[in-house]
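Reminder to self: tokens first, then the designed residues, so the page reads top to bottom the way the pipeline ran.
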């Protein structure tokens, strides 16, 4: 029989007082109320949070007019329960969690001493439908626990917005592989000699780079260009594909990048992208004769991800505008500002049905650089890989293993950053980006004039 003092989550967090404080917070927290102010929650929904080693759970009942929390032994009342080993919860509830333990989604990926302790018990569909509410409840518990332990969290430094927006945008029509003739949104800033081409992540758009593109200190160094893939952000959907039928392949992605470089007359641009865009940066280096890039900075990238797909991002019974941003929200570093994480959430919530899912067809298995990255000519296309320490989707170890297969490539772990470095913490990411660009320029010195 387990010892409640060591394995019971409520005891671990300090007793019933924590549950009472959570119940009070559910009545006033603006984000929680924004998530629950809907007649779709007219009937109460209860879920549990507990340690794997104990049956005692925090039970949270959600309703549009009143929500509350209580502590009791688990029974058949919850529609679902999220559970993790007590050691996992201990790491999650640290003031600044260790990488991989900053979110429940991260804990689902990691085992502890060979045991996969994090799990979802009960209805997986109900968890998917309420994942946004679960995440906010866990954030509130984290805040309450840290205050009780006299470890009040300092608000992360917010990114300072410039009073003037320097980004200029336009549309161009491009014939693209797979998609046909597309109306593509492009934006640019800066007047430097070095072209940079920014690529957005899965199911997002180029607003991810606005903080960098509006940074006056970068304008004299770089001419920065970004665009939205077909069906993403402000670009129009591909007429060749049915609504909800978006997909992404290596050929279509390379074709779009090459078309933008030609249309915008970019001179040997350094291509920068994270997640699926980091993967395609490696593809650009492999196929640079088609693209003519001056180098690549693959962020959060590796040669291949063989991961079982989940289908809630395209399930008729799950609201993708709520589920999809939750599937990626935990990939941010815990030190990222609330404003920047909210922007990431907003972008992922705003994409059309099927876009996030279709992009993952490339990210999860569609991209395969195994046996190919070894042949990259870094003299022709230098490669400087960067990965945030809090990224549990493409971990630093995964990126390092790939970089070691590319003769002459560089790799560095970005401390305090996660899967979306340019958006989570633009100021924290900027030194890493500039270092990578300077290294690539040094490798190519004397070549670009030829």
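Designed residues (450 positions):
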């Amino acid at each position: 029989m387990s010892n409640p003092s060591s394995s019971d989550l409520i005891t671990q967090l300090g007793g019933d007082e924590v549950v009472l404080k959570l119940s009070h917070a559910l009545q006033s927290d603006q984000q929680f109320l924004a998530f629950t102010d809907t007649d779709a929650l007219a009937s109460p929904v209860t879920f549990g949070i507990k340690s794997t080693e104990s049956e005692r759970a925090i039970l949270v009942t959600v309703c549009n007019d009143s929500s509350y929390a209580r502590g009791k032994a688990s029974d058949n009342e919850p529609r679902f329960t999220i559970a993790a080993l007590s050691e996992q919860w201990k790491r999650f509830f640290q003031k600044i969690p260790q990488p991989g333990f900053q979110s429940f989604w991260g804990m689902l990926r990691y085992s502890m001493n060979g045991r996969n302790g994090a799990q979802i018990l009960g209805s997986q569909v109900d968890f998917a439908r309420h994942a946004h509410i679960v995440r906010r409840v866990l954030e509130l518990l984290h805040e309450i626990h840290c205050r009780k332990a006299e470890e009040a969290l300092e608000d992360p430094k917010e990114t300072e917005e410039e009073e003037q927006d320097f980004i200029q945008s336009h549309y161009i029509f491009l014939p693209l592989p797979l998609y046909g003739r597309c109306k593509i949104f492009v934006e640019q800033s800066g007047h430097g000699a070095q072209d940079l081409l920014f690529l957005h992540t899965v199911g997002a758009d180029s607003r991810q780079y606005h903080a960098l593109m509006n940074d006056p200190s970068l304008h004299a160094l770089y001419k920065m260009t970004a665009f939205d893939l077909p069906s993403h952000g402000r670009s129009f959907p591909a007429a060749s594909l049915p609504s909800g039928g978006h997909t992404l392949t290596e050929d279509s992605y390379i074709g779009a990048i090459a078309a933008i470089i030609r249309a915008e007359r970019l001179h040997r641009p350094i291509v920068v992208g994270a997640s699926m865009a980091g993967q395609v940066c490696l593809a650009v280096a492999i196929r640079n004769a088609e693209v003519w890039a001056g180098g690549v900075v693959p962020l959060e990238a590796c040669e291949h991800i063989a991961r079982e797909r989940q289908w809630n991002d395209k399930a008729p019974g799950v609201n993708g505008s709520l589920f999809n941003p939750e599937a990626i929200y935990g990939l941010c570093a815990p030190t990222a500002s609330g404003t920047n994480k909210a922007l990431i959430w907003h972008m992922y919530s705003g994409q059309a049905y099927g876009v996030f899912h279709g992009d993952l067809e490339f990210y999860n298995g569609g991209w395969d650089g195994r046996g190919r990255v070894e042949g990259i000519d870094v003299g022709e296309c230098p490669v400087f890989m960067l990965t945030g320490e809090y990224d549990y989707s493409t971990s630093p170890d995964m990126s390092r293993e790939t970089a070691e297969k590319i003769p002459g490539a560089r790799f560095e772990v970005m401390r305090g950053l996660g899967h979306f470095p340019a958006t989570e913490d633009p100021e924290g990411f900027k030194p890493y980006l500039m270092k990578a660009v300077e290294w690539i320029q040094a490798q190519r010195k004397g070549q670009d004039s030829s």
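The mean pLDDT is 92.
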